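Question thread 4412

I'm putting together a teaching handout and wanted feedback from people who do this every day. The idea is simple: show students a protein as raw sequence, then show them the structure tokens that encode its fold, then repeat with a second protein so they can compare. Below is the first pair exactly as I plan to print it.
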Amino acid sequence: MRGGPAGLDGTAAPTGYSVRVRATLLVLVIAACGRGSPSSSTSDPGGPADVSALSPLLAAVGPAPRGFASLVLTDPAFHDQLTQLQAALRAQLGSGSGDCGTALSRLERLRIAVGEPLRIAAELDGQIDARAVACLLGEADVATLARSGLVLRDRPGGVAIEYQADRGQAERARRVGGELMRRCGSPSCAVLMLGPASARLWVQYELDQTMRMTLSGPSFGHAVSAANAALDALRKDNPAMGLLTLREQHGDLVAELPKAPSSLEMVFLALTLRGRMLEAFKIPSSSMAPTVLVDDHLFIVKGALTGEVVPGDVLVYKQDDVQWIKRYIAGPGQTIAETDTGLVIDGQPLATEVVDPNYRYRDGEKSLRIVERTGTVVREHLGARSYLTLRTGPPRQTGSWTVPAGHVFLIGDNRNNSNDSRYVGPTRKENVVGRAVFTWLAYRDGVPDWDRMGVSPE
């Protein structure tokens, strides 16, 4: 089966009404929980516990809560952002929230819980009601959202918002609900739990004297020294970088900003980070399945943060003015051969073992139609590294290649559906843009796939 080239599309976005529904719901998730900071937990906290006493919202999202937030919107940092958002709405739409009988700057508090597969329960306090929310979103859109499971209702002091993709009810929630509440102890905070039970990533946001985000998970604390070294180099040319400080705390990575940076400072900071240190990409094809799937969103580190790349790393690189993502297999002077039984490097066959002979995955075609495919998942060992690959038949072609000086040899994990160095030749090292570090957003059947978020593409 021959597939098209699998690259990265940093600007492509899905279209259609279902995406508008998804985006509307994820505004709630990201605004309240996605700014969070992780705390360290490497295993599922375990058995069930009644969390109704902790928060009715957590109880409302069912047996698997994933995020919780309580944000004081009257704090100047939030108040200024809401005022700017209202002005932006007026400029873009020719109207503002005031035309709907409310003002975003008059909102007081947002509490929100998020559950799995996708359940949202939120309470918004202030001068707002369900009619005003419907006006802001558009009556037609609200009607369609309601058919998808979204409920808006008035409550004393504000409005309640509920969404359940799965309407099944559960009486009890896991102890992780208590952990979410424990981590969200400051007046304005948000916490989100990502990844599978074996490799939890906690993201926790706190607003007190500073704006603070903490990432707790595998290897995050180890990145602080390299990140600070890269920041120091950028601060010489960009004063906005002086706003951001990074430190290690109990194995976590803690990032802090002044409590109320100006909008201009934040724009400069975001643009510098994107251009020189960290960038997000969306995956449009299946060339890296099963490691990275269609519609996954990855963060890559760039510049000094990339470090010395080694075989086994997943790299983003430019070729023919297009950005691609593949796995680094071999470097200058090495010889790679592809045989009917697998890869051979410098005369040594790479060890493999079958993990799943009946793997099913989704593939995007040029027509934008998603099709179901099957294959065999094989774990491949490259030195001290190992990773999953996908085989859907014999090699499209066999042969051998020697990597010239200053080049790297890159192959997609989906071995029969990847246009890579086997077909277009090795890539010059200077064309490497960065190294993929983790998936920050993933979907499955239109709802978030929490267990793949925060996972490193090993």
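The second pair follows. I'd like the answer to focus on this one:
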Amino acid sequence: MNVAPNLRNVVLTVSLALTWACHSQEAPEKTLKNETITVGCGSCMFHMPEVQGCPFAAEIDGKHYLIQGRVPEDHDSHAKDGICLTTRKAVVDGVIRGDKLVTTRLELQPAEDLPSALSAPLKHEH
């Protein structure tokens, strides 16, 4: 009786089962409905690695997520109340998928603590 082919099949079966189990336990999506969260610039305010430019980002439960989907189109990121100079509260509807927050609604709330003036010019262009 040749045991090697049976052992190979067992190892292959166990490997496939473990691979499936790891992938099936990825973080489930989390739905946000009428939630108030903190938003700011992913680069300037949250210092997210690998972020280019000044995209909207969210801080939820101590984690940072780049925002995709609806964001205010008329927002000046570098204005006194802009997301590059201060974090803001926002009311959102959306879904957290991996490291992204995909919004269907994002309503910025009035800024609470505005910087009195820029302490130094911003170091990057947009």
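Top answer:
Good format. For the second protein you could add a caption like this: DSSP finds one helix and five strands in the chain. The helical segments are 4-24.
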